[in-house]
Amino acid sequence: MKASQTMRRYLEFFAVIEQRWADVPSYDVLLVNFGAAALRRVALPMTWLAETRRITVDASAREADSEKRRIDALLSAMPVTSVGGVALAAYHRKLQLKVVAGATTVRSNRLALTPALALLSTVDAEGRSLPTQAALVKYLSQSPGQVAAVTGFVRFLNAEHGTSLNVRIDESVLRAHRRRVREKVLLALAKRAVDSPEFELEWIRAGLAYFHDHVKPGGSVVRSPDGSGFSVSVGDNYLWIPSWARFTPTGKG
């Protein structure tokens, strides 16, 4: 079945070529009309065309096409007429000027747009408003490694859209925000607690994040005989997590 589907895809590819051009066009023409992703799905015919010298594959053009389509997907992720969508498109135009000038690459453009969209989505997925300082704190507390990546967009918003955002946020503020969010997760879990291995695993993962700032899955679990909690192996240590019945929120950052 899979083989027949693959063969059908190949035949459709050559049928389109025959209908549009009668003969095999250049690689650049194929790239513009099909896109890099579609050409990857007909890798065997493309290899044959290259080996028989019908086309000359341009790897840099292929990569640029892939990046362009990824950028288009980022820009279309938010309504283009929304406040956020307009700001994102304007930021893209500014970045594109640097690409044209040879000061940066299309890939760098895409890497700059990705955290910009993520920050806007933290406020509202529909882009109805621009980020506030609170939204920036929320975003960076969830993605602490993105400070440098999002700085360019923050500066752009401040300069072009009248915001007053500051990426220099004290780590204690971000840590307190993360802790409040994680506490809410534990409280929500405690309210719907069920006696099942799946729920227990979910609780342990959330507990590792809240009590020990450990976001990766733990190893073996030792349950206390009295049901008060769990000892979870992490590296050479065992970390204690109280059970949902014994969990008492601190209410502090």
Give structural notes.
- The chain is mainly α and 253 residues long.
- The chain has 3 domains: 2-57; 61-160; 175-242, no CATH class.
- The protein is 62% helix and 6% strand.
- It has helices at residues 2-21, 27-34, 36-40, 43-51, 59-76, 83-100, 106-123, 133-142, 147-160, 171-191, 197-212, and strands at 221-223, 229-234, 237-242.
- The chain has a 3-stranded antiparallel β-sheet with strand order 1-2-3, with helices on one face.
- The protein is extended.
- The model has no long low-confidence stretch (mean pLDDT 88).
List keywords for this structure.
253 residues, mainly alpha, three-stranded antiparallel β-sheet, 3 strands, 62% helix, 6% strand
Short description:
With about 250 residues, the chain is mainly α. About 60% of the residues lie in helices and about 5% in strands.
Please write out the topology:
Elements: H1 2-21, H2 27-34, H3 36-40, H4 43-51, H5 59-76, H6 83-100, H7 106-123, H8 133-142, H9 147-160, H10 171-191, H11 197-212, E1 221-223, E2 229-234, E3 237-242
Antiparallel strand pairs: 1-2, 2-3
Helix pairs in contact: 5-7, 6-7, 7-8, 7-9, 8-10, 10-11
Query: What topology, given as strand order, has the largest sheet?
Result: 1-2-3
CA gyration radius, whole angstroms: 26 Å
What share of the residues does DSSP label as strand, in percent? 5-15%
Content-based structural category? mainly alpha
